[in-house]
């Protein structure tokens, strides 16, 4: 639904060049919630603003729903019209809501429809329908100043949906909200994603946002995407920074001659009693050193760091059993005498290369 290739943005600032985006290749599938996370200055805002051409990329292409927006932006006056039309299939939600304080809630939502030339009666019908969708049917005649932060963001979301977009871009939509309101706005975005089949691209600096609603995520650093994939793919990637931050597990071996293993559960495997089966089948005592279980996008997912007695070579069979159950298994610490090749199993290497 959204593809960027080699997207680059260089700002000129007081005679100095700042590279905010440095060749970003992004792929957002239709119907998914995709989160881009990164620290301040990583280039997240530049990315989202380039995706709807609010900011003109220095080079590279942006395609949304099959339309190359960068090509439209490049051609004369007619291009402006085509770009505006293409943009109406992209809604945008802002951190500080960007509502007009002198207009009622209903009139704020009608604004993009006015620009599109929709008739008064149709605008009003659509605005009231959207207010109902975001749970604010009784606030049509209120002014933004009379609303809470969460309600203002609901209006911002309704306005973003006015043109019936296929894509919603969210620029830190919950950063100005308290935790409870954040949860309700994220839930609303999730519901809209499911009900309307809306593709959502959001940027955030909060891992909790990614954990709560994202199907896929990318980590940005210094204008580049350094990791990207579905949450399951990330969890299955050994050494993934995003996976480690989504599901941090720690814990040291309790003594020498121990095998420490990080086990990642997702999908069906998450509900199977694999640890007790392992213990019973191989008659081994298993210690749990650390664990993080959670629900991501409605699916149970988690990580556990366990310890088995004995060196890695004595545990090849039980570790193989875990893999056979469909679990992602990573050897954290094998006895120093075990060659690296043995500790890094071929299965893991293969899975890592996917
Ligand atoms: N209009 C501009 N002119 C010059 N430099 C800019 C401009 N906008 C952004 N930058 C620079 O580009 C880099 C990336 O900024 P950007 O706002 O995209 O990052 P960000 O990840 O969204 O950060 P934040 O979370 O703080 O908003 C930064 O070094 C920033 O100073």
UniProtKB/TrEMBL annotation:
Name this protein carries in UniProt: Methionine import ATP-binding protein MetN
Gene Ontology molecular function: ATP binding; ATP hydrolysis activity
InterPro entries per the UniProt record, alphabetical: AAA+_ATPase (IPR003593), ABC_transporter-like_ATP-bd (IPR003439), ABC_transporter-like_CS (IPR017871), ACT-like_dom_sf (IPR045865), MetN_ABC (IPR041701), MetN_ABC_transporter-like (IPR050086), NIL_domain (IPR018449), P-loop_NTPase (IPR027417)
Protein species of origin: Streptomyces purpureus
Keywords attached to this entry: Amino-acid transport, ATP-binding, Cell membrane, Membrane, Nucleotide-binding, Translocase, Transport
Pfam families the record matches: ABC_tran, NIL
GO CC annotations, alphabetized: plasma membrane
Gene from which this protein is expressed: metN
Entry similarity comment: Belongs to the ABC transporter superfamily.
Function (record text): Part of the ABC transporter FtsEX involved in cellular division. Has ATPase activity.
Gene Ontology annotations of biological process type: amino acid transport
Complex and partners: Homodimer. Forms a membrane-associated complex with FtsX.
Domain ABC transporter: 2-247
């Amino acid at each position: 639904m959204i593809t960027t290739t080699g997207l680059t943005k260089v700002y000129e600032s007081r005679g100095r060049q700042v590279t905010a985006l440095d060749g970003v290749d992004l792929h957002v599938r239709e119907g998914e919630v995709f989160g881009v996370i990164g620290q301040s200055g990583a280039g997240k805002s530049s990315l989202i603003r380039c995706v709807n051409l609010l900011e003109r990329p220095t080079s590279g292409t942006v395609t949304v729903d099959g339309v190359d927006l960068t090509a439209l932006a490049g051609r004369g006056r007619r291009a402006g019209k085509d770009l505006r039309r293409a943009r109406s299939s992209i809604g945008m939600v802002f951190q500080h809501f960007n509502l007009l304080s002198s207009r009622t809630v209903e009139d704020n939502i009608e604004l993009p429809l006015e620009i599109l030339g929709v008739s008064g009666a149709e605008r009003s019908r659509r605005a009231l329908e959207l207010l109902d969708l975001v749970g604010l049917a009784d606030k049509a005649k209120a002014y933004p100043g009379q609303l809470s932060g969460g309600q203002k963001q609901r209006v911002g979301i309704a306005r973003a949906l006015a043109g019936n977009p296929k894509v919603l871009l969210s620029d830190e939509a919950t950063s100005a909200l308290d935790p409870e309101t954040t949860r309700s706005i994220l839930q609303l975005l999730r519901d809209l994603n499911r009900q309307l089949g809306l593709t959502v691209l959001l940027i955030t600096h909060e891992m909790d946002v990614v954990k709560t609603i994202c199907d896929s995520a990318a980590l940005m650093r210094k204008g580049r995407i350094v990791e990207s994939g579905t949450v399951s793919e990330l969890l299955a990637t050994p050494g993934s920074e995003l996976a480690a931050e989504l599901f941090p597990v720690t814990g040291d071996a309790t003594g020498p001659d121990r095998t420490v293993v990080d086990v990642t559960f997702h999908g069906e495997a998450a509900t199977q009693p694999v640890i007790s089966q392992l213990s019973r089948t191989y008659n081994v005592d298993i210690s749990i050193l650390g664990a993080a279980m959670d629900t991501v996008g409605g699916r149970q997912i988690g990580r556990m760091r366990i310890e088995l007695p004995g060196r890695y070579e004595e545990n090849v069979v039980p570790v193989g059993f875990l893999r056979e159950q469909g679990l992602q298994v990573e050897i954290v610490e094998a006895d120093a005498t075990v060659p690296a090749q043995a500790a890094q199993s071929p299965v893991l290497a293969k899975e890592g290369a996917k």
